[in-house]
Design brief:
- The complex is a heterodimer of chains A (88) and B (290).
- With 88 residues, chain A is mainly α.
- Chain A has a single domain, classed as F1F0 ATP synthase subunit C (F1FO ATP Synthase).
- Chain A contains three helices and no strands.
- Chain B has two domains: 213 residues, no CATH class; 57 residues, no CATH class.
- Chain B contains eleven helices and two strands.
- In chain B, strand 1 and strand 2 form a beta hairpin.
- The C terminus of chain B is likely disordered.
- The chains are: A mainly alpha (88), B mainly alpha (290).
Chain lengths: 88, 290
């Protein structure tokens, strides 16, 4: 196989693994955050506004790890610097 | 933006060698002109009476909501942060909301734009902090627990700036990219539905960017206020834990109290007793501390 094919194959396989593994942890973390926030709202309905706002920010912070994985995966597929050397 | 590139930076419209004009510049200036122009048009004829134009009403609602949000988040005077935080929110929100236009790519889908916005926050933290508490007190906040935390504090400043930039870029870029991919796969209905979801994500991302900016800046300008009395929810948590350290962040209290739901914690007692969780009765506090 020539180098271009190998780089393309490795990039695509790695991108798949990147987003697959990288989304596991944030998914578990967001599920736990949402469950805890729902429980907190059930206990203290008066504080629902504060809890919801904090939940949004916490979700964004947790989600950013998955976003990093997504950015790396998209760069591997669409803007691969090694691939661009061959295809021009 | 074609299907092969992931940022609108690579769509170069005019190449002048050292300086080139790409799609990001065009859309950024278009958004700025739109915001400033509409704000100028609306505020040209302001009325203080009960009869006002609906545009003025909308603008007042926006500014009022921004002020109340900043006051709730920072716990300080909102006018200090209104200019910066409001500008950030409105710019990111409008640039995301305009993505319903065909051929438009949000400027926040480019890493250069989001890096510029994050750098604004990065430099605003010391500016606001020094203007609030002076140079010495601000610099002392870097060695706040002890001097060994100095590298970690500096690292945290840098990494949160990077996270701020990459988070906004990743969210907006991934949605434009997903819509572009879907457009080539199923061009009838799905891109429109996903574009609507992208509008929601863009609004949430604008909110989150602004909230984080306010939190960072407000934290940098109130470091020395550890002596403030803890909030009532904190006092409930302190009684339940027997934890003598003050200054527990109030955002941790919902999750920390909900973890102890098997034991009769004061929030449960107050919720069943009076229904007002914000003002627990004294009996709840005595019942929570064995």
């Amino acid at each position: 196989m020539e180098a271009e094919t190998v780089i393309g194959m490795v990039s695509i396989i790695t991108a798949g693994f990147t987003i697959a593994i990288g989304s596991l942890g944030p998914a578990l973390g967001e599920a736990r955050a949402a469950a805890e926030a729902l429980r907190a709202i059930a206990q203290q309905p008066d504080e629902a506004n504060t809890i919801t706002r904090t939940l949004f920010v916490a979700m964004a912070l947790i989600e950013s790890t998955a976003i990093y994985a997504l950015v790396v995966a998209l760069i591997l597929i669409f803007a691969n610097p090694f691939w661009a050397e061959f295809t021009g | 933006m074609g299907s092969g590139d992931i940022t609108p930076d690579e769509t170069v419209l005019w190449d002048g060698g050292f300086v080139n004009i790409n799609l990001t510049l065009i859309t950024t200036w278009a958004v700025m002109v739109l915001i400033i122009g509409s704000a100028w048009l609306i505020t040209r004829r302001l009325s203080t009476g009960p009869h006002m134009s609906r545009w003025q009403n909308g603008l007042e609602v926006t500014v009022d909501a921004l002020r109340s949000q900043i006051r709730e988040i920072s716990g300080q005077d909102p006018d200090r942060y209104l200019a910066l935080a409001g500008t950030l929110f409105i710019f990111i929100f409008v640039s995301g909301a305009l993505s319903i236009l065909p051929g438009y790519v949000p400027p926040t889908a480019s890493l250069s734009t989001t890096t510029a916005l994050a750098l604004c926050v990065f430099f605003a933290v010391p500016v606001y902090g020094i203007s609030a508490q002076g140079v010495g007190s601000y610099l002392r906040s870097y060695v706040r627990p002890n001097v060994f935390m100095l590298p970690f504090n500096i690292l945290a400043e840098l990494s949160r700036t990077l996270a701020l930039a990459v988070r906004l870029f990743g969210n907006v870029m991934s949605f434009t990219k997903i819509v572009a991919i879907l457009l080539s796969l199923a061009p009838l209905l799905f891109p429109a539905v996903l574009n609507a979801l992208g509008l929601l994500t863009g609004a949430i991302q604008a909110y989150i960017f602004t909230v984080l900016a306010i939190v960072y800046i407000a934290a940098g300008s109130r470091v020395h206020r550890h002596e403030q009395p803890p909030m009532e929810s904190d006092m409930v948590g302190l009684d339940a834990y027997g934890d003598p350290t003050p200054g527990r962040p109030p955002h941790e209290s919902p999750s920390s109290t909900s973890e102890e739901n098997t034991t009769p914690t004061p929030p449960v007692a107050s919720a069943t007793g009076s229904g007002a969780a914000t003002s627990p009765p004294p009996s709840a506090k005595s019942g929570g501390a064995p």
